[in-house]
Amino acid sequence: MTVVGPFGLSVRDQALEADVQTGLSAVEAGLLDATKSEVPFITDAAQHLVRAGGKRFRPLLVMLAAQFGDPHAPGVVPSAVVVELTHLATLYHDDVMDEAEVRRGVASANARWGNSVAVLTGDFLFARASHILADLGPEAVRIQAEAFERLVTGQILETAGPRDGRDPVDHYLDVIGGKTGSLIAVSGRFGAMMSGADERVVDILTQYGERLGVAFQLADDVLDIASDSHESGKTPGTDLREGIPTLPVLHLRARAQAQGLPEDVELVELLDGDLTDEARHGEALRRLRLHPALEQARRDTVRYAQEARTALAPLPECYAKSALEELCDAVVHRAG
Questions:
Q1: What is the distance between the alpha carbons of residues 165 and 185, in angstroms, rounded to a whole number?
Q2: Cα–Cα distance between 319 and 16 in angstroms, integer?
Q3: Among the four residues 11, 64, 78, 197, which has the most C-beta atoms within 10 Å?
Q4: Distance of CA 146 to CAs 76, 150, 151, 317, Å?
Q5: CB-based burial of residue 260 (10 Å sphere; 0-12 exposed, 13-18 middle, 19+ buried)?
Q6: What are the two backbone dihedrals, phi and then psi, of residue 11, each rounded to the nearest 5 degrees?
Q7: What 3-state class would DSSP assign to 336?
């Protein structure tokens, strides 16, 4: 058994490990090449998060999905570069919107160079992703465009909030289906499609990616509250400080409204206050870490990860399928 990719994913076959490692190394080289500019300052800004590392979760999924066809097909690595560049671009924009100071254990681009440079660098990465995508054919362009539309729609829905009468939890799950699930679904789809896998396999891996993507974001929601900065690579409680609704907080609010327990109502009032105050922010984190709402969010993470695993059932038994199943376990493990 060897270890590869994010979360210490174990791969039990040497040939599969070699393919995945070779593919991820090629993706890393492709990312550095795609983020070079004739302007040195742009190169520095564009490679800031590339060089900071990261889980490379999406490229890993591309590589594993490609095992159901020809993993060495010429479009596999470029499509993995596309999805990771797109993801990186959204991080630059997200950090501006969230006023985040830390990303992947280093200063965020906006903290280092200001909001304008961070936004424009994200745009630069989108442009480079589109340039690579154009060589992969019109179908790939259409798939990526649809996913990008869903991603942006999810972000807008998050900003707008749920419409009157809509369950905030259902609204939030729609938001993260767009913001996170869409691009992870494309990762599974591109890997299978570029490798020439059967259309049925492509559909299965797309559905798997969608569900795994939701589980992945829910695990991040839990980590934002439960982890320290060393674990998550960003400041704990960032979403909390910015008033961004995440699943544990939504579960808390629903419980407070339904049951009216004084301790729940008091915690909601604390969250509605000024969390830029370090003492209040620390107290809110401490109390949320002990609250049943956090465990409820963990259970939701497990449920979506299990749905992803179930989606894989029709695929033939092989080492790649086992690795994809283990990826579901790894995502759940992140949430504790």
A1: 29
A2: 7
A3: 64
A4: 19, 6, 9, 31
A5: exposed
A6: -120, 130
A7: coil
Cα separations (Å) of 5 from 2, 124, 170, 207, 292? 10, 27, 32, 21, 32
- Residues linked to residue 11 through DSSP beta bridges, in sequence order: 2
- Exposed e or buried b for every residue in 112-151, given b needs 16+ CB within 10 A? ebebebbbbbbebbbebbbebbeebeeebeebbeebbebb
Please report the sign of the dihedral spanned by the C-alpha atoms of residue 70, residue 71, residue 77, residue 79: positive
The answer to whether 143 and 189 are in contact (CB under 8 A) is: yes
**Paired residues of 2 in beta bridges:** 11
Phi, psi of 293, rounded to the nearest 5 degrees: -60, -30
Q: Amino acid identity of 255? A: R
Provide the token pair at 197: 């896998």
CA–CA distance, 199 with 131 (Å, rounded to integer): 26
Residue pair 21/9 in contact (Cβ under 8 Å)? The answer is no
State both tokens at 34.
């795609």
**Rounded Cα distance, 314 and 207, in Å:** 12
Bridging pattern class, strands 10-11 and 2-3: antiparallel
CB contact at 8 A, 223 and 335: yes
SS3 2: strand
Which residue has 């004739």 as its token pair? Answer: 38
Q: Is there a contact between 66 and 195 (Cβ–Cβ < 8 Å)? A: yes
Residue 314 per-residue DSSP state: T
* ∠ Cα 304 193 123 (to 5°): 75
Average pLDDT, 10 consecutive residues per value, the chain (336 residues):
55 85 96 96 93 90 97 98 96 82 82 90 95 97 96 92 93 95 98 98 98 95 80 69 88 95 94 90 94 96 97 97 94 83
Distance CA 52, CA 268 (A): 35
Predicted TM-score of the model (pTM): 0.90
